[in-house]
Design a protein that fits this description.
two-stranded antiparallel sheet, Rossmann fold, 336 residues, 2 domains
Length: 336
């Protein structure tokens, strides 16, 4: 589908049933990686974008393709390469000559005009090309030659990238990283999962997931998630977590943030924590956000928003280690 109909409201039970059906169908193709699949689905329901990082061959592209099939969304894949240009993503104006001999420009839409856009190996393109997605991700529009073109809802960018240590990669600009709701780490499968992967992918039978939702249902699920109330003490906890990511703020001198972080999370980090926690609560069948929901999404929401200093990079520190330290140090508000 390209244009979603006006979504009909869904209940908490319907939300859970649909989410479980999506996870079940995706599980027919993707072995293991339950946390990865759930976090990507949380991004889609929240109306946000996800960045999946992992070495080649872990099924990142297959996961996104499968989600597009299960959700019956218009799918577009953009393979990022060093010679990719911005016009290859957003489109360009083409000169045409009419029957009367007059020449006019016609906008030829690029592959970004879809519901679910796979930006494959996004960090193999130059920063100039990577930045072509900024407006689309933030404002859901594209501007070409002073003309703005809206992107049909729902619109999601699910990007994959290889670890920046690998050859031929460019680091994503901080402004673009911040526009991803979650950064999801895709880890190597266990031995048991690897056996199952070999069985599914080298045999005569290929699993085919069924369509269980559409764009209108995803929009309705997102509307319900935004209505989930957040108590004041939970909001206060989220604010304290985000403020504590900044090294200039007061805090214990031995904290990993004070020692190894150069820049902390932006307000988008707090928004990601709230939206992620709301969806996490609904997946658990609750219509309220608990501290556990915030902690469950903290790594995915913050890991790409913390920039380590030279000492942190030299020590081989991971931003996940900093977040673990934060969660251990920031107290749950009293009386909660």
């Amino acid at each position: 589908m390209t244009d979603a109909n006006i979504p009909e409201p869904v209940s908490v039970d319907e939300f859970q049933q649909t989410a479980q059906a999506i996870l079940r169908e995706v599980g027919k193709v993707i072995v293991g990686q339950q946390t990865v699949v759930q976090q990507v689905l949380m991004c889609i329901i929240s109306g946000g974008h996800a960045l999946l990082e992992g070495v080649p061959g872990l099924g990142k592209t297959m996961l996104i393709r499968t989600l597009a099939d299960v959700l019956d969304l218009k799918f577009s894949r953009i393979q990022f390469t060093p010679d990719l240009m911005p016009a290859d993503i957003i489109g360009t104006n083409i000169m045409e000559e009419g029957e009367d001999g007059r020449r006019t420009f016609r906008f030829e839409a690029g592959p970004v005009f879809a519901n679910l856009v796979l930006a494959d190996e996004i960090n193999r393109a130059t920063p100039k090309t990577q930045s072509a997605l900024l407006e689309a991700m933030q404002e859901k529009t594209v501007t070409v030659a002073n003309a703005r073109y809206p992107l049909a809802p729902p619109f999601f960018v699910l990007a994959t990238q290889n670890p920046i240590e690998m050859e031929g990669t460019y680091p994503l600009p901080e402004a673009q990283l911040d526009r991803f709701l979650f950064k999801v780490d895709v880890l190597f499968p266990s031995a048991g999962d690897l056996v199952e992967i070999m069985g599914r992918t080298t045999g005569a039978f290929a699993p085919h997931p069924e369509k269980v939702a559409d764009g209108a249902r995803i929009l309705a699920m997102g509307d319900l998630a935004r209505q989930v109330p957040v108590a004041s003490h939970v909001s206060q906890y989220i604010a304290q977590l985000v403020v504590a990511t900044h090294p200039e703020e007061e805090g214990p001198p031995d904290s990993l943030v004070r020692q190894y972080v150069r820049y902390g999370a932006s307000p988008r980090g707090a928004q990601a924590l709230v939206l992620g926690a709301k969806v996490n609560a609904l997946l658990a069948g609750r219509y309220n956000v608990a501290f556990e929901d915030v902690q469950a999404v903290a790594h995915a929401a913050l890991r790409h928003r913390l920039l380590l200093n030279f000492e942190g990079l030299a020590e081989g520190l991971r931003t996940d280690d900093v977040i673990d330290d934060l969660l251990a140090r920031v107290p749950v508000p009293a009386g909660a």
